[in-house]
Amino acid sequence: MEDPTIYRILGPIYISSILPIEQEQDLFESHKITTIISITDSDIPIKYKSSPYKNIQIKLNDTPQDIIFPYIGEINYSIAETIYVNPDMVKPKLSGNAVLIHCQSGISRSVTFVCAYLMNKFKLSLENALHAIRRNYPNRTFEPNEGFLEQLEIYNDTEYTTDLQLLKNNSPRWRGYRMKYLINQLYDEDNINKDSFSEVSKPEINDNLWFGFQCCKCRTLLANNLVYVPHLPPFDKDDKQLFFYKRGLGNQIAQNKCTHIFTEPLNWMKDKILENDDSLQGRLDCYKCNSKVGNYNWKGGRCSCGKWMIPSIYLYKSKVNQIDSNGKLILQNDPRAI
Ligand SMILES: [Zn+2]
Ligand SMILES: [Zn+2]
């Protein structure tokens, strides 16, 4: 049985499960709710499809693979439009209309989008946005799934970017996030998603932010900053990632240097990665000169610093040179050096 309560979050913003909707409660009468944002596959009663109600339905599942960014803009706008005279302004409408955001249980999806709204509108951190939702209801669970939480952090880090192409270009963290779920797409029902393999190219014009990695032997460009997935070495001395087992050698302490450069799956790796369907791992050779430059393992792998990455697609630092957009080598003492 879903929770029947309609929770007042902040001013005229409410969260609930689907239950009050299924019960066809008179939400305008009880809470002055005029906008109902339904984040669920379930059918919404016809009652809410006409005046005084406006219903927006978003069919999004509640798993970490599901991507929230395409919906944030529309939902933020609808909330603001209901409450404020002008969606960009702070002056509330005299009518005092309210908005209900509900999903199935009122725990993850609805909370996620209310967080996104509060973060954007009031420049709150994710933590403070969650606190604003939870503070009056200490016994009720309001908890976006772990994937939605990470996407909200990315939303914050990128100053409220929702455009997927911009995220891909500007947020290494988003690229890392996508990677985690890529394997599902890649091997899902033999339906290989070709878009999952990124092209690597040099910029047409000088670009100070650009860098690339070229094969040491033949100087072929193998990766660049747009496909590079950074990682932070584990730094806490209690972090188990710092100690790992090396075959035959017992427990090893990780080195404080990274030997791996992790990347997204790249176009030139595609044949190699897809040729052996049975194996989720293998070596990566330079596509020009065939010398070994890295490895991939969809189940994950560890950098020399101890950091565990899933999936693990990497070039060995020792097998590539880092270059800038003029083709000049970036040496180890350069602040741009990876
Ligand atoms: Zn590392
Ligand atoms: Zn090569």
UniProtKB/TrEMBL annotation:
Enzyme class: hydrolase
EC number: 3.1.3.48
Keywords per UniProt: Hydrolase, Protein phosphatase
Pfam families: DSPc
One Gene Ontology cellular component: nucleus
UniProt GO molecular function: protein tyrosine phosphatase activity; protein tyrosine/serine/threonine phosphatase activity
Active site: C103
Domain of life: Eukaryota
Gene3D superfamilies for this protein: Protein tyrosine phosphatase superfamily
UniProt domain Tyrosine specific protein phosphatases: residue ranges: 95-148
Limits of the Tyrosine-protein phosphatase domain: 3-161
Similarity comment: Belongs to the protein-tyrosine phosphatase family. Non-receptor class dual specificity subfamily.
PANTHER family reported for this sequence: DUAL SPECIFICITY PROTEIN PHOSPHATASE 12, DUAL SPECIFICITY PROTEIN PHOSPHATASE 12 FAMILY MEMBER
Name by which UniProt lists this protein: protein-tyrosine-phosphatase
Organism encoding this protein: Pichia kluyveri (Yeast)
Organism ancestry: Eukaryota, Fungi, Dikarya, Ascomycota, Saccharomycotina
